[in-house]
Amino acid sequence: MAAPSQGDVSIADFHAYDDETKTLHEDVRIYGPQAPIVDGEPERRISQILEPEYAGVTDTHAYVSLQEANAIAVVDLATAEVTDVWPMGFIDRNVVPFDPSDRDPEDAPEFSLRTYEGVYGIPQPDTVEAFTVNGKDYIVTANEGDARDYDNYTEEARAKDLGDDGIPPACDDASFADQLDDANLGRLNITLEMGLNEDGTCYEELYHYGSRSLSILDGDTGEIVYDSGSEFEEVTGELLPDFFNSNHSESNMEGRSDDKGPEPEGLTVGVIDDRTYAFVGFERVGGIIVYDVTDPANSTYAGYVNNRDFSISMEDSVDAGTGEEDLLKAGDLGPEGLEFVSAAISPNGKDLLIVGNEVSGTTTFFEVELKETEEPAEPAPASAFTSPTAGTRPLLTQSSPMGGPAMKFSWATGTETVKIPSPCAAATPSTSTTPCAAERPTTSSSTGATATRFSLATGTTTARIRSRFAAATSSLSLTPSSPVLLMRSSTTARPPTRSSWATGTVTVKTPWSPSAARPTS
Questions:
Q1: Closest among 169, 437, 501 to 309, alpha carbons compared
Q2: Domain boundaries in the chain?
Q3: Which residues, other chains included, contact 344 with Cβ-Cβ below 8 Å and sequence gap of 6+?
Q4: Rounded distance, CA 325 to CA 137, Å?
Q5: Is pTM beyond 0.85 here?
Q6: Do residues 168 and 205 lie in contact, with contact meaning Cβ atoms separated by under 8 Å?
Q7: Residues of the chain with pLDDT > 70: what percent?
Q8: CA-CA distances (angstroms) from residue 187 to 80, 256, 456?
């Protein structure tokens, strides 16, 4: 087969928007360093500002993310013409909560989702994929966020820096003006290019990078039919309570809350048993989150897996001189590219998810398996306890027992441990060691039913309830595919490695040749 020539290549450009034969929506972000001036006007100002990031393709169209511009370009493949540019809009943080601080409080940050009036997230999608349901095209986006930061230009600042170094202050009547301390919005990275009042003297709104979510758009109109809202942070906050919004190179608590949170970046879509799933990689905290998008407008969380060993913090390992050794044990760090391989073409006859990780330098093959969904247990009777999240999703708050609910998630039992002040604490004599009868465990937590325990020391009731996220995780399993989990390139001159989740060990086999690490078909 002959290689294509230049004459076989068509280029879709944005020149019609420069020439004003087409008009951009006002919410498409055109900003940044000035393009070269020709005859007194910026040369191809819009074309140079719109930076294509990623493309999702159907038989007829390509949908291209313009990340910094917060938009999706639609390209007709038959004519190589950009037919439209859809703005992604903004996420109202007075409606969709998030955790904006890595110092809430300083030196002991806690997972805490909250809302703020006048604050907006800019989705700024990175990866975009197209998929079809019942003959209709949809686009799913991983809303990572990104700032322009060059030697001669930066748009980024922390919210607490408003009013300093020539930056206009927050408007006196801005709803967030008294919330710019480190424990609230002060540490949040925002853009200086949006939010100014009409005369440009102060900021009446704040806009931060990324919406920490995935969105699904109608492939015909660009209308957003679904957004996952705060669920990415809800899931990771619940399932990774000690490493919520951790960085990838360092294991920490809330290291990225002030920036882009879990930072969804990589994305792929696959069909399993006639159902369509979106797989999204979290660049910073790591792991893959899965959504069932079979009914796009009513998409649902389906599972999350993270094989990272948080006991290994690579920055500390490098400082200690054990970086090379510890990297082999750390698991996957910084998932970047994802690819779904259907069972029909898979070398082992099973559905696979392949993930490339830029920080650990690993490539992981996951086998994707559907399981029967277990029904969550009924909540405990009111006489036993009153859940602070009854009727909603249980969230981990890490509060002290007497200061509010504290919760802990158990992978082993799929339950939440909830501590709340006990109504029978005052009624229990100080010399008694017998809890209230209503507080005694009546069923086993391992069955998914409720178990309760009363503590005289803290005056709290510990109640275990079935977790919404655990039930969803049990319905879709991602497990390492044999024979290789962590496979290193032959250029590293190291043997391939395989880690075991069951034993927490890494297996190294020698001697080694590149062919030995390849799955056989």
A1: 501
A2: 51-370, 380-468
A3: none
A4: 46
A5: no
A6: no
A7: 71
A8: 43, 10, 40
Structure tokens, 22 = 């087409």
Write out the two tokens for 31. 């900003």
The C-alpha atoms of residue 164 and residue 45 are separated, in whole angstroms, by 30
HEC string of 80-141 equals CEEEEEEECCCEECCCCCECCCCCCCCCCCCCCCECCCCEEEECCCCCEEEEEECCEEEEEE
Cα–Cα distance, 288 to 307 (Å, whole number)? 9
Nearest to 449 by CA among 368, 380, 355: 380
Q: Say how far apart CA 224 and CA 70 lie, in whole Å.
A: 13
The residue that leads in pLDDT, 482 or 128, is 128
The count of C-alpha atoms lying within 13 angstroms of the C-alpha of 396, restricted to the half-sphere facing its C-beta, is 24
Q: What residues contact residue 190 under an 8 Å CB cut-off, 6+ apart?
A: 156, 157, 158, 159, 206, 207, 208, 209
The tally of CA atoms less than 13 A away on the side-chain side of residue 387 is: 24
> Degrees (nearest 5) of the Cα angle 70, 42, 149?
45
Q: Which H/E stretch holds residue 247?
A: none
Strands 206-209 and 119-122: parallel
Enter the tokens of residue 477. 């399993």
Of 19 and 194, the structure prediction assigns the larger pLDDT to 194
What is the chain's mean pLDDT, rounded?
Answer: 79
Q: What is the rounded CA–CA span in Å between residue 104 and residue 183?
A: 4
Residues 335/357, Cβ–Cβ less than 8 Å: yes
Binned at pLDDT 50, 70 and 90, residue 37 comes out as confident
Structure confidence by residue, pLDDT tens digits, 130-175: 999 999 999 999 999 999 999 889 999 999 999 999 999 999 999 9
Q: Are strands 189-191 and 156-158 parallel, antiparallel or unpaired?
A: antiparallel
